[in-house]
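Human:
Care to share another protein and its fold?

Assistant:
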Amino acid sequence: MLAELPIRRLLILLAVIPASTCALLALLLLGGASRGLALVAVLAVMFAAVIAAQLLRRAVRSVASTQLQLQTARNELEKLREELDGERRAREQSKAADEKERAPWRGRNIIREMLSGIRERDDELGKFRGNLEQLVEERTLQLQQRTHAMRLVLDHVEQGLATIRRDGTFTSERSRQFDAWFPEPGEGRFFAEQLAPRDAAVQARFQMAWDQVVEGFFPIDAALEQMPKQIDIEGRRYAFEYNPITEEDELEGVLLVITDITAETQRLQRDAEQRELLAVFERFMRDRGGFAQFFQECQALIHSVVSGAVSDTASVMRAIHTVKGNCAAFDVTSVAEVAHRLESAIVDRGELPSNEQLAELQRSFNALSDRVQRLAGEAAASKVEVSSEELNHLLEAATSRVPYAKIVQLLERLKHEPVVNPLRRAAEQAQTLARRLGKGEVKVEIVANDELRLPTERWGGFWAGFVHVVRNAVDHGLERRQERLAAGKEPVGSLRLICKLQDANLCIALSDDGRGINWSRVRERAQEQGLPAETSHDLVEALFTDGVSTAQKITDISGRGVGLSAVRDAARQLGGDVDVSSTLGEGTTFRFLFPLEKFSEPLRESARACA
């Protein structure tokens, strides 16, 4: 193993051996070892030192030989590198010479290649030019065929198609049907001038709506939604659809699609008339006297408005509102719809209806009158209904030698309508309206004497106005089933219709168990109109003032704030007045009080007798 040790480690070992030998000898002697043993140990160490020295000499000779071989290898490697460098330089010089000789020929080859490439590109351009001309011819043919096909569509489509530019003028491309309906030239003119050249009102409607479209204040779809949907033009009714044409969300124009819906409108109108006629027939057969009274009252109200006998806006509004309410109650929808449109026009413009609008109301009622006359005949309103109790009362009076004047008085009473009849009609109207509004059935209790009668003509206006109280009670007062259950009430709402003597007055009342009047809202509406709203009396007065309503929105049933003022006016014309009491969450009662002193003597006696 000593022979394999590195030279440096062997040198360190030789330097350490003499010192180690001396130290070993000293230790042996001091330790009491015999001289012989100490001598043997020293000899052994010295022998080891001799062997180490021999090994060292061999190692030195081996290192010297190795260094000589390495130097020889380095010299040979350096010589080989010089030879390789010389060969590389020779090759580079030879390549440079070849490049120099071939440079002119290479330039010629590059030019040749460029010319060849140019010729190839020219050939390709020629082929492309030919293909392009052919492609243009093919595309032109396709475009012509497509245009022809589009023209065929435009010539055979049943709708009127036209494109409106952003400036409001028509483009030249239109369907044949459009040109047939609106033949007057419209190039360069506002499109509505071609659609309705002789109707300035229609043109104004289109102009106002189109200005909103192009201003861009509203989204395009929302603005187009405000455009007129149906227009009557020279005896025809047209429906309009508007499809925006945009580019990068900017409006470029509108595709106008027009459909003639005259025949469809007439068919729907005939169907509605048939349904209305059946409903009128049913009403008439069930309550001839009541229907005759309704008809006469509506006729008088419409005549007062059309003839100008009623001229102030508030009175006209009340009359039309009463016509609408009563016609709706008797299922005469044709007149009710016209009256509702007139109401809206009065509210929107704040002025009386035009002669044309009043004429439309008169025409609709005349059509109803013709149907009623064919249905009922002339003598329908002249019949008198007598209950068995009243007939027995008359027989008893005649056989008991009652004075002739008393019998005449009893017979005169029969000309009047039993008060229970209009109360029953009001109950039926309440139940019908509740079902229509999704409030289900309504319990109605009538408290009245069957023999009490009131003059039909004199009281007709009051009963016509009383409909408004009934409609308000159902629409505003009674809650829906879920709301009533949540409030701890019976699921079905209830009304009480009462006619009785109260002190020296005839009291006609309506009570409901609904949500009650929100007096805070009445106060807000009164203050908005500048009305007094400090005391309870102020709030009641405000409730019966035109334009004051607690409804959140206006519908064809209520919300105008006109009905209560109409019925109070009718009561005051009879010498009576109205009082209202209401508790929020519990219900409302309207009481109409008519002093008996304002009645005729026979009527006072009749009322007292029936008390």
